[in-house]
Amino acid sequence: MAAMVAAYAISFAYPFLFYLCHAVLVLFITAFIADIFLLFNSQVKIKASRKVQPVLSLGEVQHVELHIENQSPMKMRARVIDELPEQLQERNFHLHLILEENEKKKIQYDVRPLSRGEYLFGNINVFLQSILSLVERRIIVECESSTAVFPNIIQMKKFELMAFSRLNTFQGLRRLRRLGHSYEFEQIKEYVQGDDYRSINWKATSRKADLMVNQFEDERAQQVYCMIDKGRAMHMPFNDLSLLDHAINTSLVILNIALRKHDKVGLVSFADKCDVFVKAEKGGYQLRKIMEQLYREQERMFEANFENLYSIIRSAITQRSLLFLFTNFESYYAMERVMPLLRRMNLRHLLVVVFFENTEIEDYSKQKANSLEEIYNHTIAQKFSAEKLQIVQQLTFYGIQSILTRPEELALNTVNKYLELKSRGLI
Question: Is the residue at 5 inside a domain?
Fold first, then answer.
């Protein structure tokens, strides 16, 4: 069209171009009308459908499939726009493909949900063009659907497989040799170096003419609770997820493994007050119940009330239990304020305080300083990092177990700590 406008302008100087421009214009209008008839006739039919999992995992990349079928007797170009949930904040999503006549195509794209809740997918919009590509036709395929984004189920399954696999040590998980005895007899096996000589079964040894030892398995039906701080200290983001989301994903992992170990699991979440208390029980229903509670958890803009948490634990948890407390201490003073309450919890239970390294400060403190101002900033950053280590030392001094970890290593380090405490029979 731009060329025709230019040719019409030039035709004032060269009149013979005027008739040529007329011919091109007529040809263009004819092609335009023909393209309309090609696209908007009754033989043009497009079917589309979407396949998405009913439950998505928070923070994991997952696939969505679109099935497009061209039921028309001609080849067409298509631009597909799927109406994505508003939580994904995707404003420029489209897919291009070429559809042969009577062809079915499957296309796939990835989504990574970053918040828990219900995600609503809208219609599928298919914009069609014929070979002429002068006109575009939009076909709206109504296929609204919804899916729920739960805490990271994929991560839960992965760590469950790793924790019970013989190859788990290659993945960073470890099982320690038992330092003492439990009361659950498992089997009699041949003695190997490192076994407790007090476990030697002399009767079996005399029969086999070789040293045999009794092997005991981990005690069962012990109580494991995950206590999640939902206060403002857990709002800090890391890798597009808040520290609360990382704690929720890890809680699901550790409680699932504890259930597979035949322990009882429970959940406590708190901020200025205790919002959720799920009493420790066994069975598959307990995991679904906890998952539903974690699905609805939201941050609160209040300081964590550890006094209220201690009163709930003292009155509701009467049996000695393993308590994983997910919180975040950014300063030594913040830990010092709640230390008396942590010590009281540790007297009645086995308390493990899980808190996070500030990865931004850690990475900044390792950079090279090029000016006096940067030297001051690096000094302050190193001071914050040193305070984190001081918190660990203070907790250890009072006999409280602790995990100081980067958010991406949270699940791995927490599972390792659970397996270690279980193997040592400390629960």
Answer: no
